[in-house]
């Protein structure tokens, strides 16, 4: 199984997420993570969808089917080494009176994570990084009581010199996989 | 954007509830705006069925009945298939107008059929008022959700001001690129409320996110031309895309210049006259023998406007492995989807063929072409001649189609349903004119033919339209006899009655040891049914009467139903068993 990151540039319209996910469900491809936000160009949304698949050919077909949706402007499929990517995770750690004290120095210096909120008897720690780094940190935090753990979808930018929106909307149809 | 209609606001038509916004009584409501849009797009005919959530549109339609010919069908599926038949013969979008909930869901089969067979439809569907959306209101269904996977594009209008822009988009999307069905879900509130600005209609010419390529890239054309020029045994697969692009003349010119044999797909039939010397037959599960087996011999395949359906390829992993493939397609997602293309050319079939023509060298592949003829002789001897000349037993489907073909000189528009009769019609009708076969290919929708024949007749009033229908199929949409009679359309319908769901029975015979599981029908008296609808008809069960019966039907002024009792357990051959490779084609 190879991880692919699919970046989709679309018009910002109601129901488009549904139209896109239908393409995945129909081919029985599971979505590992999904992030949607508006791009630097107004009215254009960017979907970042992470999937795992054993066949590059099938992913290429998937990309072309997504491109076929009327509101979709461009689709790019990337391997991990072609992008800079990150996720954000929040850990809510129980810190009642008398519990094991947090080693904030290790958390900061070793794991590049930060306490972003102090509650009465808990703290919230924020960690950004790729999934491996986040799970390493998760492993470290297991010595404490983790009340909640949440991880965002992946955000990614390509390692090419150009910005992706430069391909829009004049870009020619091309296979970026 | 080119403005083709800019109409002055006029007094709004009375509506059955107070408009939500009425800044100026001179502005029109959403329903009237819709009518103006349809007229601006040159729409003449609407196939529809009224109901609660589309009432304001029907109320507006009352004022436009001199300009818009609304045809009241008997079931929304009939509206969909009639619009498909209309679109297929005219090349313009067929229009459906139905109500919310069940009205819309009844249309679903036709929409799915139109998507897979690239047929332009603009379906306008009523929806509950904006405030009732998501409340499980009466006749509310999530039609946007239901139709998302089966439309090229769909949109929910919740504001009357959106009507002109969205309709313009709908027509553009449905009819451009690879055509397909578009659905507009129009809330009742948007039908009723007044626009807050003057109605202006601008036809849509382009969209920022949807820009189908019509004119091919020169380098792709050159790569294709090089491959074609180097070919020793080139072979053209002519698909439906050629007729959609109206490129029949260009195809023939291209084939004649290069001397390349042409086979069609099921939906590509009638692209080229069946008596053209370069035409070798049609491809597919029940296509001709030579065209199928010769796919293994070709060194270059030129596939035009076709998508390598599994009924064409059989086992795709074994299909045309030895050949280089030039794939001419307007839809880029078809490239490499089933068969990897060595020289893909994205573009409109007409534009691509025009661009290719000066680059290809004149050639004459007589020796190669003659190889097809050897297989024709085998097919004739084992299948065609016996089917047409064996005078024992009941009438055979082949005889009916062959005789119809002669009597209509191959010039009729044939509309077929799905099953054995569909394959027999394709095998034995000798098409002489382009755009003469309307059939449900990709979806294989039983019940398609009767309403589609009606729609085709409305769209092509000057042509003889003959529907070929199985006894099973006929009973799925026979209520549309009422529509045909009410609208006085001279549709001729032939039921080839074998009292079986013939194709399923054939599979059960060949692949399930004759375990006939629920395929035998106890049929009604079809002619009595036709007469009940006010349509003339007759039954023919004797070979000696067949010619007279066909003459009677063809000479009849109005619509006519001819039931022909045919051999009960006849099989369609050749046949490529499902999942087998094309070379495993069976002749018996």
Automatic annotation (TrEMBL), chain A:
<dbReference type="GO" id="GO:0009097">
    <property type="term" value="P:isoleucine biosynthetic process"/>
</dbReference>
<dbReference type="InterPro" id="IPR004789">
    <property type="entry name" value="Acetalactate_synth_ssu"/>
</dbReference>
<comment type="similarity">
    <text>Belongs to the acetolactate synthase small subunit family.</text>
</comment>
<dbReference type="GO" id="GO:0003984">
    <property type="term" value="F:acetolactate synthase activity"/>
</dbReference>
<comment type="pathway">
    <text>Amino-acid biosynthesis; L-valine biosynthesis; L-valine from pyruvate: step 1/4.</text>
</comment>
<dbReference type="GO" id="GO:1990610">
    <property type="term" value="F:acetolactate synthase regulator activity"/>
</dbReference>
<dbReference type="Pfam" id="PF22629">
    <property type="entry name" value="ACT_AHAS_ss"/>
</dbReference>
<comment type="subunit">
    <text>Dimer of large and small chains.</text>
</comment>
<keyword id="KW-0808">Transferase</keyword>
<dbReference type="GO" id="GO:0009099">
    <property type="term" value="P:L-valine biosynthetic process"/>
</dbReference>
<protein>
    <recommendedName>
        <fullName>Acetolactate synthase small subunit</fullName>
        <ecNumber>2.2.1.6</ecNumber>
    </recommendedName>
</protein>
<keyword id="KW-0100">Branched-chain amino acid biosynthesis</keyword>
<dbReference type="InterPro" id="IPR002912">
    <property type="entry name" value="ACT_dom"/>
</dbReference>
<comment type="pathway">
    <text>Amino-acid biosynthesis; L-isoleucine biosynthesis; L-isoleucine from 2-oxobutanoate: step 1/4.</text>
</comment>
<dbReference type="GO" id="GO:0005829">
    <property type="term" value="C:cytosol"/>
</dbReference>
<dbReference type="Pfam" id="PF10369">
    <property type="entry name" value="ALS_ss_C"/>
</dbReference>
<keyword id="KW-0028">Amino-acid biosynthesis</keyword>
<feature type="domain" description="ACT">
    <location>
        <begin position="5"/>
        <end position="86"/>
    </location>
</feature>
<dbReference type="InterPro" id="IPR027271">
    <property type="entry name" value="Acetolactate_synth/TF_NikR_C"/>
</dbReference>
<dbReference type="InterPro" id="IPR054480">
    <property type="entry name" value="AHAS_small-like_ACT"/>
</dbReference>
<dbReference type="InterPro" id="IPR039557">
    <property type="entry name" value="AHAS_ACT"/>
</dbReference>
<dbReference type="InterPro" id="IPR045865">
    <property type="entry name" value="ACT-like_dom_sf"/>
</dbReference>
TrEMBL record, chain B:
<dbReference type="InterPro" id="IPR012001">
    <property type="entry name" value="Thiamin_PyroP_enz_TPP-bd_dom"/>
</dbReference>
<dbReference type="InterPro" id="IPR029035">
    <property type="entry name" value="DHS-like_NAD/FAD-binding_dom"/>
</dbReference>
<comment type="similarity">
    <text>Belongs to the TPP enzyme family.</text>
</comment>
<keyword id="KW-0808">Transferase</keyword>
<comment type="pathway">
    <text>Amino-acid biosynthesis; L-isoleucine biosynthesis; L-isoleucine from 2-oxobutanoate: step 1/4.</text>
</comment>
<dbReference type="InterPro" id="IPR012000">
    <property type="entry name" value="Thiamin_PyroP_enz_cen_dom"/>
</dbReference>
<keyword id="KW-0786">Thiamine pyrophosphate</keyword>
<dbReference type="GO" id="GO:0000287">
    <property type="term" value="F:magnesium ion binding"/>
</dbReference>
<dbReference type="GO" id="GO:0003984">
    <property type="term" value="F:acetolactate synthase activity"/>
</dbReference>
<comment type="pathway">
    <text>Amino-acid biosynthesis; L-valine biosynthesis; L-valine from pyruvate: step 1/4.</text>
</comment>
<dbReference type="GO" id="GO:0050660">
    <property type="term" value="F:flavin adenine dinucleotide binding"/>
</dbReference>
<feature type="domain" description="Thiamine pyrophosphate enzyme central">
    <location>
        <begin position="221"/>
        <end position="356"/>
    </location>
</feature>
<dbReference type="InterPro" id="IPR029061">
    <property type="entry name" value="THDP-binding"/>
</dbReference>
<dbReference type="GO" id="GO:0009097">
    <property type="term" value="P:isoleucine biosynthetic process"/>
</dbReference>
<feature type="domain" description="Thiamine pyrophosphate enzyme N-terminal TPP-binding">
    <location>
        <begin position="29"/>
        <end position="144"/>
    </location>
</feature>
<dbReference type="InterPro" id="IPR039368">
    <property type="entry name" value="AHAS_TPP"/>
</dbReference>
<dbReference type="GO" id="GO:0030976">
    <property type="term" value="F:thiamine pyrophosphate binding"/>
</dbReference>
<keyword id="KW-0028">Amino-acid biosynthesis</keyword>
<dbReference type="InterPro" id="IPR012846">
    <property type="entry name" value="Acetolactate_synth_lsu"/>
</dbReference>
<keyword id="KW-0460">Magnesium</keyword>
<dbReference type="Pfam" id="PF02775">
    <property type="entry name" value="TPP_enzyme_C"/>
</dbReference>
<dbReference type="Pfam" id="PF02776">
    <property type="entry name" value="TPP_enzyme_N"/>
</dbReference>
